Structure formats: structure tokens, C-alpha cells
TrEMBL record:
Keywords: Transferase. The keyword Kinase does not apply. Residues 24-246 form the Aminoglycoside phosphotransferase domain. It comes from Robiginitalea myxolifaciens. GO terms for molecular function: transferase activity. This is Phosphotransferase enzyme family protein.
Length: 351
């Protein structure tokens, strides 16, 4: 972005542009994030919120401001929203793009994937603590940030529409995966959604959104809270399980090498149980299905974006969305094939 515009943003938060240093942070497909360092200030996180993904940021910022004070405990590190000098929770640059400033969690790190079962345990514990800290909130008073974000029927319809206008070559490459999606999605035709309680959910619990202590790898907190809104617990469980239950990064080049790690699923459940979160019998009964639903949903989204010409996710090569989708759909298929075993593992830990 232009230097003058960036300088204006820094001044709005009380910084002297000449003494501030910005370092781009690479994680994430959506928002642009920078580590902001300056003499006399603690390190902070400066973010430009994507209007392409969040065209109405008022509910996003409203939910964030209400939730952050609740998400703090001796074993859960708080995140603070730093207001501008004017008192506003965010500001806009000369292109109307919104920017916000958040506290930075020192001495922490995140992972894109892991081969450490202790990380899987900590993920279960932290996501459980997140939900435990939000127990008792009036879920219905929180507006949706992205309507139908995890709605399987809506995502399938978006995929169908993308097929109609897709480039011929991309459609040919995606076709085998579209067929698999149709077969796998039928599992959820009679899914017992009505038995699940509505909760205030993170809705984007991928592994890189968990922070861990640099020295001990103890889980510290969840970050990237833009999608906090009403949902079901299985969304937050499945979104992290899809990355733990198989050993490779999301854009691994060969989906045929994927295999399941049921032991990581079991360890995750142990971490979840250790958090003290109360789960209803219905919620406990669909933990295995969560690890099926969420890679399927993300695979559908990846296919849709691929067919639409990579409009949503940032990509570094033309086939990256298709590669992501192939890995995610393969993960969903493997979980579906091992469903009975995973359900038994969940029962043995959570019941």
C-alpha cells in the first residue's frame, strides 16, 4: 500500500511512522497482517480486514469487542483490541479498507501441521477452554458475520453454480472430485442437527489459529476471531481435527499419500475431556462426524474457488485450490471409511 496511507494509519494509533517497523506475517489466506514494533510500545498486530470476505465489518467488530473480555483465564491468554487515538475500534485508510490493532502474544508460535501428539492434546484442551469461557452467553444476541458459512447445502449449491460458468479445462480437472463430493455429502441428508445446541463458535479453528508457548508447547489461546458467531460445537472440533487426523499440510502435492492417524483423534479427545467443557450427549455423539464434515466443507469451498478462478483464497500457483480440495476431500473419505472406529474412540474418552 502507499507509504502516505500507511503513515496515516500509524499516526491514528499514536505511532511516529519514522520509528515504527512493520514485518509482514505470512499465515492466513484472508487478512493482511503485520507485526508492528516501535520504541516505547509493546509489539502489536496490525491487520487490514478483507472487505472482499467481510463486506460488512460492523457485526464482526461488535462480536469481537463483546467476546474478547470473556476469553481470559489463568490457562487462556487474553487478546486485546487496541483502540485508535480517537477511541474508534478500527480505522479506514484512503481506499476505505478497515484496519485494526491487536495485542501480540509474546513468546508464542503456531504450526501449519504437526507430528507431535502433545500438540493434538493441547488443541483439544484449548478449544474446550474457549467454549467453556463462553458458556452462558446469549448466543442469539450475536449477529452472524458470514451467513451460512458452514451450511453444507448452501456450499453444495455454490459449487453447482460454479460448475455452470467454469472454464472447460478447470471443470475437467475438478470433475472427479465433484463426483466424490456428491457421494460423501449424502451422509448428512438425515444428520440430527436439531439435537445439537447452538453455541458461540470460533468457526475457523485451523491449526495455525492456535498459539502455543515457545518453550513448552502448552496451548495458550485461539486467534483470528473474525468469524465468531453462532454455530455448532462440531464446527470447531472438526475444523482442527481435519488437520490433525492426517499427517500432511493442506496443500500437500500428492493426495494419494494421505492416511489417517486415529491416535491423534483419540489424543485430541483426551485434551477436550481435560478442559472441563460440558458437552451434551448429542454433541459427544457427533465428534467423529465433525472430522468428516469439516474437511468435506472446506474441500467444497476449495473446488468452488478453483472453478471460479481463485477469487477467494490467495494462491501461489494455478492449481493450488484444486490441490487443497483433493487433500480435503480425500481426508473426508478416509474419515468416512473409518467412522465406526473413530466413534468408538470418542465414546471411550468422552463418555
Amino acid at each position: 500500500m502507499e507509504t502516505d496511507s500507511l503513515a496515516a494509519i500509524l499516526r491514528a494509533y499514536g505511532y511516529t511512522p519514522e520509528s515504527a517497523r512493520l514485518a509482514p506475517m505470512q499465515e492466513g489466506y484472508i487478512n493482511q497482517s503485520y507485526l508492528l514494533c516501535a520504541p516505547g510500545f509493546p509489539d502489536r498486530l496490525l491487520q487490514q480486514i478483507s472487505l472482499a470476505v467481510f463486506p460488512d465489518i460492523d457485526p464482526l467488530m461488535e462480536n469481537l469487542q463483546r467476546v474478547l473480555p470473556l476469553l481470559q483465564a489463568p490457562d487462556y491468554h487474553p487478546i486485546q483490541l487496541i483502540p485508535a487515538s480517537s477511541g474508534e475500534s478500527f480505522i479506514r485508510d484512503n481506499t476505505n479498507a478497515p484496519w485494526r490493532l491487536l495485542s501480540f502474544v509474546e513468546n508464542s508460535r503456531s504450526y501449519g501441521h504437526t507430528d507431535n501428539p502433545e500438540i493434538a492434546f493441547e488443541c483439544g484442551r484449548i478449544v474446550g477452554r474457549f467454549h467453556q469461557l463462553l458458556e452462558g452467553v446469549d448466543v442469539n444476541s450475536f449477529p452472524p458475520v458470514l451467513v451460512d458459512f458452514h451450511n453444507l447445502e448452501v456450499r453444495l449449491e455454490q459449487l453447482r453454480l460454479a460448475e455452470e460458468s467454469a472454464a472447460r479445462e478447470r471443470m475437467q480437472k475438478a470433475s472427479p472430485w465433484i463426483s466424490q463430493v456428491g457421494e460423501l455429502a449424502r451422509y448428512f441428508d438425515y444428520f440430527p442437527w436439531e439435537s445439537l445446541p447452538l453455541r458461540l463458535c470460533h468457526n475457523d479453528t485451523k491449526l495455525s489459529n492456535f498459539l502455543f508457548d515457545e518453550a513448552s508447547d502448552k496451548g495458550r489461546c485461539l486467534v483470528d476471531l473474525d468469524t465468531i458467531m453462532p454455530g455448532y460445537l462440531l464446527y470447531d472440533l472438526g475444523d482442527i481435527l481435519r488437520m490433525l487426523i492426517q499427517p500432511f499440510a493442506e496443500d500437500h502435492p500428492n493426495y494419494k499419500e494421505l492416511y489417517l492417524r486415529p491416535e491423534y483423534f483419540e489424543v485430541f479427545c483426551q485434551g477436550l475431556a481435560s478442559s472441563g467443557l460440558y458437552m451434551t450427549p448429542a454433541e459427544k455423539g457427533v465428534v467423529a462426524e465433525s472430522a468428516f464434515l469439516m474437511p468435506l466443507l472446506h474441500g467444497i469451498r476449495g473446488l468452488t474457488d478453483y472453478l471460479e478462478g481463485d477469487r477467494h483464497y490467495r494462491v501461489v500457483h494455478p492449481e493450488q485450490n484444486l490441490v487443497r480440495a483433493s487433500n480435503l476431500i480425500t481426508t473426508a473419505r478416509l474419515v468416512h471409511q473409518d467412522m465406526d472406529n473413530l466413534k468408538q474412540l470418542a465414546r471411550s474418552v468422552l463418555d
